[in-house]
Metal-dependent carboxypeptidase (Shewanella psychropiezotolerans), 992 residues
Amino acid sequence: MTHSPSTPHYLHLTEHFQKIAHFEHLSALGDWDQATMMPIGGSESRGAAMAELARHIHELKTDCFIETSIEQAEEELLDSHQMSNLREIRYQFMQANVVPADLVQAKTQLAYRCEHAWREQRANNDWQGFKPNLEALMKLVKEEASIRAQAQELTPYDALLNKFEPGMTTKRLEHIFGDLKSWLPGLIETVQGLQAGDSKISLAKYSARSQEALGRDVMAYLGFDFTQGRLDVSSHPFCGGVPGDIRLTTRYDEADFTSGLMGIVHETGHARYEQGLPKEWRGQPAGGHRSMAIHESQSLFCEMQLGRGEGFLTQIQPKLRKHLNSQLTIGELNHIYTRVKPGLIRVDADEVTYPCHILLRFEAEKGLVDGSLDVADLPEFWAEHMKSLLGIDTRDDYRNGCMQDIHWAVGELGYFPSYTLGAMYAAQFRFAMEASLGPVDELLAQGNIAQVFDWLDKNIWSQGSLLTTEELVKRATGETLNPKFFRRHLEQRYLK
Amino acid sequence: MTHSPSTPHYLHLTEHFQKIAHFEHLSALGDWDQATMMPIGGSESRGAAMAELARHIHELKTDCFIETSIEQAEEELLDSHQMSNLREIRYQFMQANVVPADLVQAKTQLAYRCEHAWREQRANNDWQGFKPNLEALMKLVKEEASIRAQAQELTPYDALLNKFEPGMTTKRLEHIFGDLKSWLPGLIETVQGLQAGDSKISLAKYSARSQEALGRDVMAYLGFDFTQGRLDVSSHPFCGGVPGDIRLTTRYDEADFTSGLMGIVHETGHARYEQGLPKEWRGQPAGGHRSMAIHESQSLFCEMQLGRGEGFLTQIQPKLRKHLNSQLTIGELNHIYTRVKPGLIRVDADEVTYPCHILLRFEAEKGLVDGSLDVADLPEFWAEHMKSLLGIDTRDDYRNGCMQDIHWAVGELGYFPSYTLGAMYAAQFRFAMEASLGPVDELLAQGNIAQVFDWLDKNIWSQGSLLTTEELVKRATGETLNPKFFRRHLEQRYLK
């Protein structure tokens, strides 16, 4: 007599998604390698291999058995975790299945070409060259948005948001960002007033090699396990790989070690999240990260909530002395890491002005998708908004204006809000954590960083996607996203 | 009116094999990464991902449409190159299709486990631990050999040889190796007599870093294009990657730079072959390397035919001075690189004693496959043959005896002969080349190494698998494999 499983359809689905995870493993490896190791001669065949792989994964995710199996699995007796997994399976299937394979392929190919050209066009400030590529790509983005919107009964821009942030809507973002817009410019002005006349601390030059040694030491302090991942160099820092083998990258500026170092702290936050995802759910949709905003909340928790605090700086200052022979005091480090200054570049922005870059992009994306903003009018739109939000003149500087980010060059709209949502979640998590553990800064100063990570592990990492974002945040903090904590955090740190 | 292709079945096959090549690209990347970059934490999920990929590739290679499409393509009007490609498609299909998927998977899994355990067992000289694993694996190897043999009307060992060396037979090898056995032991004895009393040249210690700089310089001298590949470190040197992105590895011994350096020269020979394969046939079976013996002939051409010659040493001696600040003279380098001394380890052997290691393994493999040699009797067999071939006592030293190579630990029998066939082809190619270009050694001394590679490119590399091995060698040298050139080469170099 053989046992037949009581949940055959659910099991079949989990096996299928485990298979998909194996191919996604290879996709992650290909991406990482391309950014860190691959010589230029490999581009063509890698591009073709990755496109083939993406197509295969798309085919697997839209396999015709899935839809009916989901329906049948819904009748099976599943426990609550299995039900969560089935919910995520359904979501992934739906996200993949609504878009025709031809559109996926056309967009992938165009995005690849557009990005490739953008790298040089950006360096040359060549807006005229970039514009037609972006226009062509935007056509496909609109088509994708409209197809996704119809299938999900959402507005087109909401449908794009939902690729990264399941459940997020334009309306909710407008509410959250509207509030932000009401107080942030004032705060920036106040802080700038407080910081006016500060002298700039000059930095010595340090080799990439010694900066890397410092970075590894700081990663180890942040609990990164080097038997479960790597640190390498790429022109744009990122965190890739797979749980068990998380690969993060940074870049080193010999004249300014502070940005490379904080880049490592940021990516280590992403890495710890991935490494902390529930091992028993590896390879299943329920075992993946919850959303991009939650992912960013973990990196920003490390970089902003911990990394700018005195407790953290107290701990890493001896490491700076050891690896760089730097004589910077904790006070000087604190000074460096809390300067607020409006600038052109999003990725170089401090945590106070950063959301302005997102507000601008959110408005632009809405316009690009609903047709009220043409690609041709983007530079003017950019200049106006940079002027009003940050008081900066960006006219004719396309390179450091609307051409600065890779997201649009690869046709990904809807991602940007995740950064600021992440910063908000990070602040909310810290306040919730402090309600039970006491001030995080003091914990770190006392050498108790492990308690901080234990909280994150228990409340965020180990939950994977077993809960919805709303449930996750409510269980961890007692309420859903509440932007007031972000405001409180900034005011505490910058108005003192 | 649309054009329909006049060779639809052939075209369909080429598209399908191009697709397979894309997945093989990812397989090559996964292998390379595993050996060079992957942290231990990645093993489990990588193993699973690679097995999934191997299975997918096997499914693609045995897709049910292929057999009939080949038959129909054979009726189409193909040019001679297309016919060659169809021949190679047929060969690859047949090699994959004759083995049941279950056996492939069972052998892959067992080989993975056996190799994993072998790494530690070898270090511990643990023959008793290795023996049952090897016995289990050998059962599957025999099953594979017998299935392949039946399908191809070959003997079982011939069927294994044909995985690496299409067309090669035990009978032919017995003839070739029988000849070798008749004169090689005598030559070894004579050379040892000539070299008796030589003083050993002591080497200074050099950091891995400076050895790497030297290695890169030598690779560039050998025409390696670093925009088309990389050099890294792994515990076992190999040449991997894909044309356009060839990745070779070496290992550095601080106390002896000479072996790491010649390892690089060897792998660069493999790399140039891969880089020189016909670009217009990339992704098609006709565009791949001809056979493993031809592959080894290219690495051994660089390492042995060029690398041990005075012309080559004249060119690299200034590089040694530059990177290592080494004061070794050309004469001393020549002395170091032409010492003949029987030893336990195949990969450390000089070119004169090396074939004895292959003769032993060839006899052992035949016995293991036809059942006349039991795994349990392998150590005794090994000791006897090492004694008679090289005069060395290996009893109880399993680690440096029958457990030294990875090949059997992963269930690959039939490969070893390729090494010595490669050495023979390399010698034959040099003599043929010299008939038109004059002494290679002099060309190199005059800085004309490009002419040597031009010859190889024209006659070997650019031919891919468009010709059979027999045709290739005959066109390049005027005759098929003739071992007399190898003998002549050794006598010229070592009896002077």
